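ugh ok so i messed up the first submission bc i forgot one of the chains. this is the corrected input, ALL of the components this time, i swear. 456 residues overall. if the numbers dont match what u have on ur side tell me asap before i send this to the collaborators (the ones from the other lab, u know who)
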Amino acid sequence: MKGKLVAVEGLDGSGKSTQVYLLRRWLELEGVKVFFTEWNSSDLVKSATKRGKNQNLLTPTTFCLIHCTDFADRWERQVLPLLKAGYIVLCDRYKFTAFARDSTRGCDREWVRSLYNFATVPDITLFFKAPLQVALDRILSGRPVLKYHEAGMDMGFSKDPYECFSIFQGKINDEYDKMTDEFGFVVIDATQSIEVMQQEVRRIVAERIDLASYRLRGKK
Amino acid sequence: MTTSPHKPKSWYGKGIPCVNLDELQGSLIVIEGADGSGRSSQIAMLNDWLEGHGRATVSMGLRRSNLISPELDKAKQGNVMGRITMNLFYTTDFMDQLENRIIPALRAGFIVLADRYIYTLLARAYVRGIERKWIEDLLLGVALVPDAVFYLKVSPKNLIERNFEKHSTLDYWESGMDIGISQDMFDSFVKYQRRVQTEFSGLQERFGFEVINGNRSPRAVQLELQAKLARILGVG
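and heres the new structure output, hopefully the right one now
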C-alpha cells in the first residue's frame, strides 16, 4: 500500500487526542496528504450505537460488534481507499482499543481479534502511557458526568461511577501493557508536557515516514 | 401427552459471556431457505400446530432486532456500506436477537422458531467472496447450536415462479445483483440462487441439517416438518 497508517492509543486522559490533533495540524501545514478518523464516528452506525447506549440495549457481545461495525464502515469507505491513494491516515484509537475494552467486558480474546482481522497492524502505533492515577486524576478532577458505558457501569464493578471507572480503566491499562510488545507499540511517556510529547511524536513520525513523498503536488 | 426430551445446548465456538447453557430448557428450531421457499408460511403453520398442542413459541428472523434494524433497512435501499460492514451489521442484528430474545425464551422453556439463522449469513458471505475463515470465526464464535435445522430446498425455476406470483418482481439482493454476475436480473437470479444452493449443500454436509423438498405443496411440506418435529419436541 502506498499510504501509511498511524494510530494513537492510550487511556482516556492520556492526552492522545491532543497529540494526534497537533500531529495532524503539522502534517497539513507541511502540505502532506493526511486524513484523520476517530473511534466511534461512522455516520451510518452512530445512530444505532446511540440508540443501543441510550436504551441500554447493549450486551458485551453487541457492544463489541457495533463498535467493530463502526470501525469497518470507516475502514472500507475511507481508511483503505485513502491508504491505496497514498495518504497518511491518522486514527484516534484503533482496533487495540476494542481488544482492551471488549476483553475486559468478558468477550473472548481470540474472537474479538478475529473480528478485526481485516484491518492491518498500523505502520506506527503510538501508545501514550500514563500511570493509571495520573490518567484518572485528569479525567475525574473536574467531577465530570461519566457516561454509563464509559465508566464501565455495565460491568458492575462498583455502584459508584467514579470507582467503577477507575477499576475499569485499570483493567484496560493492563490489557494495553500486555499488547505493547506483541504489536510493537511505540511507548510515549504521557506525564510529559504537551510540547515535549509533540516534539517526540513529530520526530518519530519523521524518522519512520519519508514525509517528502507524501506532499501534495504543487505545494512547497 | 409427552414431555419434551430436553437436549443439552452447546455453542459452535466459545460462546458468549454469562450464559449458563443448562438453564436453556426450550428448543431452537431453524427453518432455512431462499425467498419464495415457503419459510414464513411454514413457520406460521408450525406456530399454530405447536400452540394447538399447548406449546409456547416465539419467532425470530433476520433484520428484526430493536438495535439496528433501521440501519439495516437503510442499507438495503442502496449500496451505502461495504461488504465487511454489511456482514458485521447482520451479525450484530443476529446477536441482539439471540441475546435479548432467543436465550431468554429458551430459558423460559419456549420453542423458538427461527426464520433463517447463521447459515443464510454464511452462504451469502461465501457467495460474495468474503474470506471464509473471517465470517466463520465471527458467526460460529457466538452462535448457539440449534436443536434442528430444516432447509427448504426449492429449484431456482420454482423460486422464480413463486416470487413473480407474490411480488411480480425479483428482489435485488435475492438476485445477487450487487455481485455483478449479470446485468440481466433474471439471469442473475438463477445463477445467484444456484451458487447459494451449492453453498448450502456444503453447509448441510458440515452441520448436518435436514433437507426438505420444498417443491411440493405447502401442506405436504408441513406434514413432513410436523412429523419430524413431533419426534424432536415430543409433541403429539
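quick check: DSSP finds eight helices and five strands in chain B. that seems consistent at least. The mean pLDDT of chain B is 91.
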